[in-house]
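Researcher: Here's the sequence for the chain we discussed earlier.
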Amino acid sequence: MTANFEGKSALVTGGGSGIGLATAQLFCARGATVTICGRTKEKLDDAVASIASQVPGAQIHGVVADVTNEDQLSECVDAAASHTGVLDIAFACAGGAMHMGPLIDADTQGVRDTVDLNLVGSFLTLKHAARVMTPVKSGSIVLMSSGAGAFPHRWLWAYGMSKAGIDSLCDYAAEELGDVGIRVNSVQPGIIDDELMAPITAGGGLLDDYLEQMPLARLGTVEDIANAVAFLCSDDAGWITGEHLSIDGGHHLRRGADYSKLFM
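Model: Thanks. This is the structure I predict for it:
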C-alpha cells in the first residue's frame, strides 16, 4: 500500500540535497506540507524550486537553520508546525563526516564537529519535534543513522560512533515517547549514489570494497532510502517504534568497508 500523507505536515533537516531532498519530494508527492531546512539559503531555494517543478501543487517551504544551533532549530520546528497547526513527521537527515583516518592521528576538532552535527543535531531535532508533537499525542520521528554505526568501517570511526549514538538515542526516545503516542525509528543506509558520496561512487578501491561486501552488489539510490523513511512515517508502520532499519543491499551481513582505501 502506498502511504498517503494528505493533510500531514513534515520537517526534513538536511533537505537541500541527496536523501533529504528525495524524501522531501516524496512526502510532497504524497500530499504532505513539507518544510526543509539547511544552512545554505541558495541550496534550499534550489531544492524548493526543484520540488515545485517536479510535483505540481507541492506545498514546500525552506527555512535556513543550523541543526547544531538550538535556537535556530527550535524556530525551524515551529515554522514547520505553523503550516497546518501540528507537526506529524520529522526526519532528522542532516549529517556528515568531518574526520576520517586512524585514531592516533585524529583531529580532535574534526571529531567534535562530527559528533555535534550528527548526534547533537539529531537530538535537537528530536527534542523540539517531540515538544510540538506531545500535546497532540501523535507523531513519527525518523533519525538518520548509518551502517557505519552498526558495524566497523575502518578509519570511519568518528562518523560511526556518532551514528551509533543516534541508534541509542532512538532506543531511549522510542521507550520514553511511546507514552505520548510518538514513534521513533532510525534508518541505516549503506553506500548511496548521491553527491555526498561522489568521491567514492566515482570508482576506486573503496567502491570495489563496498560492492564485494554487499550481497545485492549495487549502489543504493536516494529513492531507496526515501521509500523506507516514508514507510516508517506512515500509518502502515503504526506499530513500529525503536527499530533500526538496515537499507544497504545486505552489507550488514558481511564486514564494513575499509576507508583506508580512499587514501591509497
